[in-house]
Amino acid sequence: MNRPATRHRLLSAVLAAAVAAVLATVAVPPPAEAHDNGMARTPPMGWNTWNTFGCNINETLIRQTADAIVGTGMRERGYQYVVVDDCWFNPNRDPAGNLQGDPNRFPSGMKALGDYLHGKGLKFGIYQVPVDRTCAQYFGAYPGATGSRGHEVQDARQFAAWGVDYLKYDWCSPEGSIDEQVATFARMRDALAATGRPIVYSINPNSIHAKTGPLRDWGDVANLWRTTEDITNAWDTGQSNGYPMGIQNIVNVNVPLAGYAQPGGFNDPDMMEIGRSGLTDTEQRSHFALWAIMAAPLIAGNDIRGSSAATLAILNNADLIAVDQDPLGLQAIQVAGDGTRRVLAKRLADGDVAVALFNQGNAATTVSTTAAAIGKTGSSFTLRDLWTGASSTTTGAISATVPAHGTAVFRVSGGGTTEPPPTFRLRGEASGRCLDVDHASSANGTPMLIWDCHSGTNQRFTRNGETLQVLGKCLEAPPGAAPGARARVWDCNGQANQRWTLNSDGAIANAQNGLCLDVNGGATTNGTAVIVWTCHGGANQRWSRLAATIGPPLTDLAPRHTPSPPFPPAPRGGSRDAAHAP
Length: 582
Known about the structure:
Residues 421-546 form the Ricin B lectin domain. The protein is α+β, with helices and mostly antiparallel strands. Helix content is 20%, strand content 23%. It has an eight-stranded parallel β-sheet. Strands 9-10-11-17-14-15 form a six-stranded antiparallel β-sheet, covered by helices on one side. A hairpin with a 3-residue loop joins strand 9 (333-337) and strand 10 (341-347).
């Protein structure tokens, strides 16, 4: 959630210590099974109080907003969760330790509010934290310390008794390593499951904390997980993942995480800013189109009661909502990009492909791709413009002149659809760097190391059965490898030393010897060797899969006078050689 203005100054003092804590190695719990509570088979849609109202909430506002969601047609489009964010509670628990609604803000009580929402055909969402204080309490904007720490089972039962359908669970503390966060979030996951009530579980590990959201696949813990710091109603704040985040900044973080999305679990780039000041109409349309193609929860954050016709035209765009809500549950992958122009493609359940032509630049430009590049086969296709509804035909070219900060979106039908291979990069949790074939060499025996993540082919892995293939070779531990042996690439031969298990905790274990891929010595610098070592669950043995850019870069779109390639080249200088000799 967005915090008071004092938040930025306070965070600078606490995050330095938090970063170190996050990367600390602690005992890792056994790998959890994927979280499957039957909920969020498609990304949830609804509205949240915080972006517009912050702590200034009461039951009249919530009821009026529910009425407006129904009256504006948003409910029929799929917006159903009405989420009451921070500051809804009495600052004190009752004598039995139960949470209570604030008697002045919610005099009818929280169950009565839930009943009202259910009577409107809507669902009831509520906010809580796994630590002692909510974010508003942490910053002194609201009294008390009513977090769920030590009350998880009691609070889950209370939520179920009130008829809650959606829990937003916000970390709100600089303390805790990522492993401690996983264990703490899992306690509420299990407590909710024990109630027997279906409740969507949405977590945010990033609030007042080092940004752990993009460092792992949280699908074993929750239905939704925030990937970035809090959003604000601006296009670009210059942040990579700090407070506050603009629309473009969030897209930069969220796009590479596409491989995590699936029915029941989605990356959450935060609540929407459509209908609030600060963004142009073009930027608001881009915001919605990008959230839709990224399979993001569509949680409105404006004052629905006063929505303009233009705002409702964006929020109620049925074609884009259909892309977001497609039952395959896939997030778009980036198929091309040059730093200004990006092409995102999302395969849909009926064989169509949604494609977004996104212009991050400050001037209008042409963005182009082809049907083949987005996974379509054939010679004739129909393009449906998801903003205008107009249809056209093409033999393969897909192109549009896109305004600054704009996004053209098409649904491409006809021909066949090829399922892209599961291509990804492997990013080390401790270092934030990617598994890399040294100097992009495909020679047998080329060793593995970590290096800054880029889009080169020497970091692009494909899962084929139990093998991990890169540059036409297989990742292997040398035959008979003992702990400390250097991981390398070799011609694929199907032997056990080339077979790997990708565990749910992020470890990658070799079938020949049970050893795990390990960044040597826990170092984090470029060029550090990657070896196999006895599995211990440390951060230097945990890897996250990031979507790898596939298809050709936009070289045909790059300005003719630009001497540099559109993507960073994979090969690097020879001065590295001695630093990581096997």
